[in-house]
Design brief:
Elements (H helix, E strand, L loop, with lengths): L8 H9 L3 H23 L2 H17 L10 H33 L5 H22 L2 H12 L4 H8 L3 H18 L5 H11 L1
Helix pairs in contact: 1-2, 2-3, 2-4, 3-4, 4-5, 4-9, 6-8, 7-8
Length: 196
């Protein structure tokens, strides 16, 4: 581990790309505090910021084969952090939209129960539909909508053209929109907030 103390980002990137866990640990030690502080300014909550740091570095590890030693590693990690923060805030907004809808439309004390049950039911419904997509569309949808990667990043990760990624994502969204139960306003709200 000592030999990694003065390693530059370019070499660190190459070692992580080849699966070296000590190099990844060094990367975490080097950038996790900055990601935490950056996240906290947006999320205003210690637990959320800590969870976000874990998610960012999990994504870095999962997509380590797509790392490019010629690019700025710090910028790459902070870009993942920005996408993850955006995704986190979007999910929170979905939950708040449901809470607001429940508050405005139901006066009983069962609001929270209603919100939880409906929200979870729609999430499960969407996940079941995603599981019906062809394998490549599933991967692309999950990387885009659940992990917050851009189309360029997905193309690089899956070794596809950006156009192919866009086509698969478009087809996935058409299928999901067609089959997602949208008899109610709240179902449409969920779909567009989650998949939009």
């Amino acid at each position: 581990m000592n030999q990694l103390n003065n390693i530059n980002d370019k070499d660190l990137c190459k070692r992580i790309k080849s699966g070296e866990k000590d190099a990844f640990r060094k990367l975490f030690e080097k950038y996790a505090p900055g990601i935490y502080n950056f996240s906290f300014t947006y999320l205003k909550n210690n637990a959320d910021a800590e969870e976000l740091v874990q998610n960012v570095f999990l994504k870095v590890w999962e997509h380590r084969t797509a790392l490019d030693s010629t690019q700025n590693l710090k910028s790459f990690i902070f870009k993942i952090a920005v996408n993850t923060i955006y995704d986190f805030i979007r999910r929170k907004n979905i939950e708040h939209a449901f809470e607001d809808y429940a508050r405005l439309n139901y006066e009983s004390k069962e609001n929270n129960t209603w919100h939880s049950v409906i929200f979870e039911e729609m999430k499960q419904n969407l996940h079941k539909l995603v599981a019906q997509l062809p394998e490549q569309q599933q991967k692309i949808f999950q990387l885009s909508k659940l992990e917050g990667l851009t189309n360029d990043e997905i193309a690089q990760t899956l070794n596809l053209s950006k156009r192919t990624v866009e086509n698969h994502l478009y087809r996935a969204l058409v299928f999901l929109k067609k089959h997602f139960k949208s008899e109610s306003f709240v179902a449409l709200l969920f779909f567009y907030l989650f998949c939009g």
